[in-house]
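Dear colleague,

Thank you for sharing your sequence with our group. We've completed the structure prediction you requested, and as agreed, I am returning the results in plain text so they can be pasted directly into your records. Please verify that the sequence below matches your submission; if there's any discrepancy, let me know and we will rerun it promptly.
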Amino acid sequence: MSAEAQIQSVTVLAWFSRHAGFPGSRLDARAEQLLLIGRLIEAENLPATSESGTLQIPGAPAGANENAQRAAMRTMSELRKRVHFKCDNGAKV
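Please find the predicted structure tokens below.
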């Protein structure tokens, strides 16, 4: 284990002991997992979200999520246009 990893594990344990009363009491298993995953993301320097607030997929191109959102919005607006098609029933036969 590297020195940096040891320091990070010590800070996580210090947080657990200060805020959760570890080792005398423990948080829910899910809460502990969330805290540890958050710490891993921070340690890896991975962005948890992009500028638009959506989840960033590691290894994906920078604007992949934004492009998909734009395409979905275009499709939605096209569907709205079809719904609002007006028919002229006033023509006399």
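Summary note from our side: The helical segments are 3-19, 29-44, 64-83.

Kind regards,
the structure core
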